[in-house]
Every structure is written in structure tokens, then in C-alpha cells.
């Protein structure tokens, strides 16, 4: 993908200018809403916006007594650039979902097959007849998460995950990291390859997404001064190591979190899906299976959610958010995409950025001249 003027993409430059101003405002002031941000947006093959603001690393620590970040000396801060990698958090789930649908397209995985057919040793899910579709749509009934980070070792973590039964009847919606952890184990068992290899060989390498990988990622934007009681582990200021405590405990490669990427790489991912699964000479999915991803209620992707998609929602927009302050939205109806990456948890986790996410998406929706 190449940058170009908004007019070439049929976008209003004034509205996109407001989008950039809004993102910059998030990083302004002595106590900014986020330390730094990157926004990449476009239409068709054109990237019309690629802007960075603020700092990739601004704070040395978090001071709980004053509820403020301990500022680094100016010379030690790291400015944000459009090429800064971010901890994607739950945007990782989108890649796991695509990897699963690739297996469905190949006929090696049945979308309505029972998980127990592939993972009979995962007794909790197997006994309750949980299906692959239910994992992908968060309707397995599994609870949102387990404290795997408190388990003694990998064997104990795996034993707990295998034994975990649904907390509600399968078919009940409950957004859960456990769905993608089970899906990871299923894909690894099915293919004989670890998840990081599956994503690299099946998605990122074909698309030329060279900046997208599981950590460690030393040049990434910093995240949190992770300490109890606001966090679930005592790890100090994090940079380049996965923020999610369970993904960290699992070695950094997990179906629900762990990927690092840049705005430009994610723009390519969005473009490939908007183009029916192809980007240049590479094809990661056929058009019918991209449609399957975006068929309500969505496989891995959230669909038409105004709380973070703003006015892009309503005609089949798809996307996701990540706890660290990341999000992406792609809208097949207008062939547009928006990637908003922030280190909103630097130096400490706060309320989600949903209003800012929705405002940014609305700016892009209003910039479409022929909508």
C-alpha cells in the first residue's frame, strides 16, 4: 500500500484533518489521555492518513501516591513514530480467527465440529459439546479468563485449562480469552505447528507484514508499570514484553494476546480482507471465507459495534479492540479502514478509549465523499 492524498481515495481532507487533530489531542498536556498514538486510515489501496503523536516511552514508573507517571528526563524519552510497534493485546484474536478459517477453507477443520473431536483431553469443553463455531463467536459459555498466571508451572496451567467447564450453557454469549486459547491448542494439535509459525507462514509472511510477530519486541511502545493491586503480576515497567498476564505466563505466544505490530502492517491486513483475502500476489483466504468471517455474529471479529466503530457501524463494519489501547475497523461498504494504536496503559491501565475510538471512526465515515 502507498500513501496518497485523501482526494485520490475519495476522502475529504478536512474531515481527515480533524481526525488527526483529535488523535494528537489525546497525547497533549501534562497529564495526557495517552502517552502516544499512531493513526493509519485509508480507502481502497490508498493510505490517506499515517500520523504519530506523543511518546512511545514517556514514563519510568507509576507513582500510586500521586496517581501520576514518573516522567523520564527529556533526553531519555522515546518519541512515537508511524513505524513504532505496539502490543496489540486482543487484536491477536483476529489473527487466530483467520488461521482457524484457513483450516476450515482447506477442509481440515469443521466449523460446527465439536472441540472434543480434536481435543478429547480438554474434558471440560468436550463433555459439554462445545463447538468450533462457539469458540469463534464467544458462545461456548466459558468464563472470561482463568488466573493461569498464578499456576505453579506450565503443566498446572495446561491441566487447569483442560479441566475448565463452561460456566454457562454453550450457546450463551460471553466474551472470553479462553475461547482463543482452546482454539490455539486445537490448531496446534491439528497442524502439528505452534501458533506463531502458523500465523507467520499463513498470514504475515505472505502479506509482507514484516513488523508483525510475537514478542519479545524491544523497540515497541512501552505499556504498564505492572504491579499489584491494579495488575495481576509484579513485573515493573513493560516494553517489548506482552502486557497480558496470561499470555506472559504462557511464554508470550497465545491465541488471545501476544502479537506486536505497526499501523502500516495492520493497514495491509485490513486491505487484504477488504479485497476478498488477497493482497498483491498473496492470498490468505478466498472471498467466500472472508465473507464467512464477517457473517453475523462474526467469527473472531466484532460487527457493527457503535461503541468503538462510531458511524462506520451499521452496514457490516468489522473490527476489534485491544486492552492496551489498540483498535482497528474495516468497512466493506465504503472500502475504508482505520487503525488506531495507543499505549493507553502507559504508565498504568485506565478506562478504555471507547469514546476516542468511536470519534475517530466517525471522522473517517464522514470523510467518505460518496457514501
Write up this protein.
52% of the residues are buried. This protein has 2 domains: 261 residues, DD-peptidase/beta-lactamase superfamily (Beta-lactamase, 3-Layer(aba) Sandwich), CATH 3.40.710.10; 99 residues, Methane Monooxygenase Hydroxylase, Chain G, domain 1 (Up-down Bundle). Strands 1, 2, 3, 6, 14, 15, 16 and 17 form an 8-stranded mixed beta sheet that branches. It has a 3-stranded antiparallel beta sheet with strand order 7-11-8. It has a two-stranded antiparallel ribbon with strand order 4-5. It has 371 residues and is α+β, with helices and mostly antiparallel strands. α1 runs antiparallel to α13, α2 crosses α7 and α2 crosses α8. It contains 13 helices and 17 strands.
Number of strands: 17
Radius of gyration: 20 Å
Class computed from helices, strands and strand pairing? alpha+beta
Element-by-element helix/strand order: EHEEEEEEHHHHHHHEEEHEHEEHEHEEEH
By oligomeric state, this entry counts as single chain
At the first level of CATH, the class of the largest domain is: Alpha Beta
Described by strand count, sense and barrel closure, the largest sheet is: 8 strands, mixed
Q: Write down the domain tally.
A: 2
Overall pLDDT: 97
Distance between the termini: 22 Å
For CATH, the homologous superfamily of the largest domain is named as DD-peptidase/beta-lactamase superfamily
Shape, principal axes of CA atoms = globular
Indicate the CATH architecture of the largest domain.
3-Layer(aba) Sandwich
Write a concise synopsis of the structure shown.
The protein is of the alpha+beta class and 371 residues long.
Amino acid at each position: 500500500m502507498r500513501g496518497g492524498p485523501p482526494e485520490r481515495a475519495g476522502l475529504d481532507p478536512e474531515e481527515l484533518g480533524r481526525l488527526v487533530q483529535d488523535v494528537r489531542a489525546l497525547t497533549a498536556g501534562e497529564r495526557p489521555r495517552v502517552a502516544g498514538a499512531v493513526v493509519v486510515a485509508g480507502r481502497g489501496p490508498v493510505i490517506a492518513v499515517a500520523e504519530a503523536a506523543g511518546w512511545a516511552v514517556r514514563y519510568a514508573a507509576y507513582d500510586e501516591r500521586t496517581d501520576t507517571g514518573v516522567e523520564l528526563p527529556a533526553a531519555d524519552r522515546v518519541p512515537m513514530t508511524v513505524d513504532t510497534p505496539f502490543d496489540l493485546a486482543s487484536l491477536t484474536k483476529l489473527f487466530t480467527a483467520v488461521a482457524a478459517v484457513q483450516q476450515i477453507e482447506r477442509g481440515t477443520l469443521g466449523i460446527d465440529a465439536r472441540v472434543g473431536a480434536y481435543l478429547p483431553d480438554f474434558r471440560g469443553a468436550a463433555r459439554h459439546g462445545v463447538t468450533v463455531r462457539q469458540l469463534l463467536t464467544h458462545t461456548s459459555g466459558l468464563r472470561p479468563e482463568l488466573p493461569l498466571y498464578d499456576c505453579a508451572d506450565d503443566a498446572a496451567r495446561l491441566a487447569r485449562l483442560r479441566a475448565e467447564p463452561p460456566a454457562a450453557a454453550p450457546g450463551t454469549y460471553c466474551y472470553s480469552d479462553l475461547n482463543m486459547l482452546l482454539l490455539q491448542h486445537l490448531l496446534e494439535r491439528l497442524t502439528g505447528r505452534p501458533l506463531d509459525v502458523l500465523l507467520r507462514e499463513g498470514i504475515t509472511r505472505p502479506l509482507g507484514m514484516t513488523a508483525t510477530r510475537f514478542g519479545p519486541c524491544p523497540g515497541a511502545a512501552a505499556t504498564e508499570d505492572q504491579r499489584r493491586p491494579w495488575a495481576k503480576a509484579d513485573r515493573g515497567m513493560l516494553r517489548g514484553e506482552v502486557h497480558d498476564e496470561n499470555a506472559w505466563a504462557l511464554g508470550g505466544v497465545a491465541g488471545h494476546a501476544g502479537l506486536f505490530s505497526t499501523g502500516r502492517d495492520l493497514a495491509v491486513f485490513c486491505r487484504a480482507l477488504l479485497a476478498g483475502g488477497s493482497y498483491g500476489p498473496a492470498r490468505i483466504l478466498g472471498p467466500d471465507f472472508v465473507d464467512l468471517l464477517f457473517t453475523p455474529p462474526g467469527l473472531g471479529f466484532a460487527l457493527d459495534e457503535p461503541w468503538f466503530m462510531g458511524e462506520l457501524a451499521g452496514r457490516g463494519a468489522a473490527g476489534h479492540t485491544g486492552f492496551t489501547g489498540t483498535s482497528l475497523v474495516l468497512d466493506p461498504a465504503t472500502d475504508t479502514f482505520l487503525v488506531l494504536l495507543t499505549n493507553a496503559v502507559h504508565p498504568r491501565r485506565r478506562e478504555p478509549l471507547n469514546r476516542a475510538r468511536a470519534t475517530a471512526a466517525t471522522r473517517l465515515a464522514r470523510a467518505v465523499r460518496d457514501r
